[in-house]
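Why do we bother with holo predictions? Because pocket geometry can differ from the apo form. Keep that in mind while you read this record for fe (ii) ion.
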Amino acid sequence: MSWEFSLPVKIYFGTDKIQELPKIINEYGYEKGVLVCSNTLKKNGVADEIIKNCNGKIVAVFSDIRPNPTTDNVNECVNVLRENNADFAVALGGGSPMDCCKAACAIAKGNDIIESYHTGGKPIDSREVIPMIAVATTSGTGSEITNISVLTDLSKNVKSTMNDPLMYPKAAIVDPRLTLSVPPKVTASTGLDVLSHALESVWSVLHQPICESCSVHATKLVFEWLYKAYCEPDNLLAREKMAEASIVAGVAFSNPRTAGSHACSFPLTNLYGVPHGEACAMTLDFFTRYNAEAEDGRLSKFAQNCGFKDAYEMADTITELKKKMGMACTLSEIGVKTNEEIETLTKMSMTPLMERNMIPLSYDDIKNMYISIKGDFK
Ligand SMILES: [Fe+2]
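The structure, written out:
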């Protein structure tokens, strides 16, 4: 076995860590920043409070970002960074502001648009990059410590990842208190995204031991604390444990990346509007059972390390957890009505991410998987 591991992001974890943002900005010597966040955080005053605490170092806000950010969103964000001559940015939020800001920072000092890099093959140039500080307000994406940005190019109808070693955030602040206002449905979906990151990194062909240790820790935390955080949004301990699970799962998939469940999640989100983590979870129990058959017994050993009898028991627990939290489990629940749509979903799921699964899957394997969860239509 041969592998590599690198993670150049400084992590600041703990309740009320957000108060240290001004100090962190000063330590790095940054002068002029833009805050990139969702409209909700701008409207509810969280963004304003952060700007006030940063003593004039944040000079503008960009919040025009839709869920599952588009390349247009990134170009608009880049314009704000360039107009303000920003030498850093703070991304505040869940995956969408984070991914938008990460891509924008990667080209901020250049003069091109993001499409040239995202699907155009142009390499990121270190002279065009400005640093980003990521502040997570949900426990899910892990985007605050990865160099990956998932973007949708509406003109080409393509949703794909962009990544480069130069795209890692400089620092990540994870303050569980910021997640207290996340509603139960979002807690469920983002928590299942955490579980998908932890598990998919285990059955990725890029699997390796440092990341697997993180997967064990994150998986145990999710099974112990996610349902509690879902039922008791104000439970700070449950929020802290899920924030820990999220960041540790982020380390777990930072190098092995994700695989089949994320491959399937993209069309489920793009065509039917299923939130990202819920979309990943729709197939997570299938992939757990499928990979339980691996010859090296990797997944069963992993499941036992997480306290299960075997991988099948872990898969059953995932199914049960999804149901308890009201997540969609069948295609009919999300609006799929015809077998033609299953063909489309299958085609759109067969991406390079699917090829990372340790046991190869054919077109028919995925189609049969979709048929097995199709639910209530002929
Ligand atoms: Fe994800």
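The pocket of fe (ii) ion is lined by residues 141, 193, 196-197, 262, 276, 280 (CB under 6 Å).
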